[in-house]
Design brief:
291 residues, Translation Initiation Factor IF3, four-stranded mixed sheet, four-stranded antiparallel sheet
Amino acid sequence: MAEWDGRGLPPAAQARIGRAASGTTRTSLLPAAGLAAIEHCGFEICGEVLGCTVLQIGWYGYRGCGSYGFANPGVQLSGQGYRWAGFTPYVSALRGGRRTALHRMAAEASALGADGVIGVTLQQVDVGSSMHEFMALGTAIRSKGRVRPATQFTTDLGGQDVAKLYEAGWVPSALTSGISLGIRHDDYQTRRQVSPLTGPGEVPGYTQLISTVRADARLQFARQVAETGADAALLSDLSMRVFDVEPSDGHRDWVAECVLTGTSIVQFHRGAAAPTRSLTILPLTGRGGDR
């Protein structure tokens, strides 16, 4: 097989498209209830679609947040252009990896003639040597009627949730995310507060780091929603991780990384409310402890 140059769809994706075009069997990642709901709304399954990329991600060039010793540097965010923010390429790689994976997934869906991709899952896997795989996986769907969306949509919502949106006059627009990273130097004050000799208590510096990064990620999410021209957004996942880096001996920085994921939605009419009734759950135990 010839070496792929990174442009267009990978050979494996092209082979999947060829198999889908030549056969009648269509695969789906949706459960039975989700598939039935989508069919009820006038869509049909085109097939499962996937996009991935492997990126080298490192902290090369990072020499610390620029604060040492007894200083209280506060929090430095990735988007604020600090002189010492050598971690900015790392954040750019995170955003670029997700964007590339989604773009390749959408391109495969377009090749299948799909109007959108639902039930999208985004994964980031460490494959060793500072390399990470970014993968987007979902089910491509197409309208069975003559009226079709002007642009392809993506969402992490499942078939039943998408059907409820349509019932209520809303349509998914795009899978949206907000990513933020902040760094705070582990100064004398924070080291003293986390010492076993100090006892339990809040560490204000770490609280500030986590809350600031989470707030910035929400801001980035809101900005991306506004850029899509959507009317609202449904936040589906918020992940946070905190880790430390030691750029030099005796100098440690704490890093907080926050990723928000959701779906931008657009209202196309004001109709009846979405069906929200669910089955009543009855306990299988009798009164008085009888079983």
